[in-house]
Amino acid sequence: MLFSRTIGTVALLLAVHASMGKAADLPQPAPPFVVPVAADAVQRATIILDSYSYAPSHLVVEAGKPVELTLTSVTTITPHNFIIKDPAGSFSIEQDVSAGKTVTIKFTPTQPGIYPIYCDKRLWPLPSHRDKGMEGKLEVK
User: Fold this and answer.
1) What local confidence, expressed as pLDDT, does residue 105 receive?
2) Residue 80 has what DSSP assignment?
3) What CATH number is given for 33-140 in this structure?
């Protein structure tokens, strides 16, 4: 009886330890990047497009002020794109960024809200880059 209680206690401790290790191994989301407003009233930021990720992946901007994003791909072969689509249709951005290239986009968001950012490139029949985690959000305040 003592043996079975000891085995049960050990099993419980191992289960708790294993679950704690898994929680600690999960990546923590990066805090939102508040895009600064420059002296010329333009909100500027650089976004790195890597293998299935954007950095930063969560941008916060002010409505009614111009935004200028420099999109830099650090991949050597894989092309990406940068898409923001407002479901209501107030604005839509679709910009291809070839591997190793830099592109600048400019737009002025007018409506506050949270808009998805994603890459929809894919090599058929594989999952899209968005399915592999290449997404983020634009938060307009």
Assistant:
1) 97
2) E
3) 2.60.40.420
Mean of the per-residue pLDDT values for the chain?
Answer: 83
Cβ neighbour number for residue 139 with a 10 Å cutoff: 18
CA distances from 12 to 17, 18, 27 (A): 9, 10, 26
Amino acid, single-letter form, for residue 53: S
Helix (H, G, I), strand (E, B) or coil at 79: coil
Q: What is the per-residue pLDDT across 23-55, written as a single tens digit (0 to 9) for each?
A: 445 456 778 999 999 999 999 999 999 989 999
Cα–Cα distance, 125 to 128 (Å, whole number): 9
End-to-end Cα spacing for the chain: 64
Residues 123, 79 contacting (CB under 8 angstroms): no
Listed by start position, the domains of the chain span: 33-140
